[in-house]
Specification:
The protein is of the alpha+beta class and about 200 residues long. The protein has six helices and ten strands. It has two domains: about 70 residues, 434 Repressor (Amino-terminal Domain) (Orthogonal Bundle); about 100 residues, Jelly Rolls (Sandwich), CATH 2.60.120.10. The radius of gyration is 16 Å and the shape is globular. The chain starts with 7 loop residues before the first helix and ends in a 6-residue tail after the last helix. GO terms for molecular function: DNA binding; DNA-binding transcription factor activity.
Length: about 200
């Protein structure tokens, strides 16, 4: 995903405009669907906005596209090395995400993220496209999905429908985890039509 050549802002600017136009949406309509102000959307499309995790998730949900469709750079080479220092961090109210890789095979797209939940912080999501999978590497992660809460420790896994409201919380020290999102590619790339 975003590397040294293209910033998250630049990638989001081009990808957001293309996705919006592909769906035949005006800025006003996308604003209504996403709950993001029209002026903010205009700034994001021009590359001058400051995107957050919450913003990107809202746009993913409103456009019914994978998060990587908004943040991904052109297709990677066959041999890919991603250096931590070369990946921009996308921060939210409680989480820092580093997008490591997008893989498409057949009708499935998989996105791989390094996810860090800051100490005594919580990250909420109203939901987004895809299925979400998380494996805790270090720390204790509290995960709430559609009102159901569970505690995960190192090596533990949780998977759920990403469209459900959910949150990640580090009740104590920071939590390191691997986040994997997967989507059916056909559903993620087909235009949304109003009926």
């Amino acid at each position: 995903m975003a590397g040294t050549d293209e910033s998250i802002r630049a990638l989001l600017a081009g990808n957001l405009k293309r996705a919006r136009e592909r769906h035949g949406l005006s800025l006003s309509e996308l604003s209504r669907r996403s709950g993001i102000g029209k002026a903010t959307l205009s700034q994001l499309e021009s590359g001058s906005g400051n995107p957050t995790i919450e913003t990107v998730f809202s746009l993913s949900r409103a456009l019914d596209v994978p998060i990587s469709a908004l943040l991904d750079a052109p297709a990677p080479r066959p041999f890919t090395v991603v250096r931590a220092a070369e990946v921009e961090v996308l921060s939210g109210e409680g989480v820092d995400l580093r997008a490591l890789r997008r893989i498409t095979s057949g009708d499935t797209t998989v996105e791989l993220y390094d996810q860090r939940v800051r100490a005594r912080s919580r990250q909420k999501s109203l939901g987004h496209a895809g299925t979400e999978h998380t494996v805790v590497q270090d720390g204790v992660l509290l995960v709430t999905v559609d009102g159901h809460r569970t505690e995960l420790g190192p090596g533990d896994y949780v998977g759920f429908d990403g469209s459900l409201p959910h949150s990640y919380e580090a009740a104590g020290e920071a939590v390191r985890s691997v986040l994997l999102l997967h989507y059916r590619t056909t559903a993620a790339t087909e235009p949304v039509h109003d009926h």
